[in-house]
Specification:
single chain; 170 residues; mainly alpha; three-stranded antiparallel beta sheet; 9 helices; 7% strand
Amino acid sequence: MCRPVRFELLGYGFISSYRKGAKGKYNLRVAPKSWKRLKLKIKALTRKTSPIPFEERIQRLNSLMYGWLGYFQLGKMWGKLRALDGWIRNRLRYCIWKQWKKPNRRMRAFRQLGIEAGMAYAWSRSRMGGWVIAQSPIMGLTVTKERLAKRGYKSFLDYYEQLFHGSRTT
């Protein structure tokens, strides 16, 4: 025997429901070990050194998302999915940055994405590391959510909300 908040089964755990008048009731949540395994899988798919095309990387990421969220759709995880989406977008921006390779190619890419010449020159020759650049405002302005969506990326949170609202109506 143990308390429900310490119990995990099939990748799920329990968390107290903090609603007024709902004492002794619990909600499902995704267990911490399941989150760690998901992040390790995402890390393997979005490694900057893996020699797979960007479209295939996105396709594999989307299929992982469909399967994982299909299984864990009963858990409460809006906040965690929002943070996970931001982290994945930064990893994808890092992959794009590494694909550009040389400073002249980076400058040309920034110019094509609408950045003025002086800023494009400065950021393309930055000595900051790739992960810092991926989180920088310049990459956020150029490689936006919409541009990633055009290339096929689907947000974990958007798909989760689609599943959640779809299952509530049936």
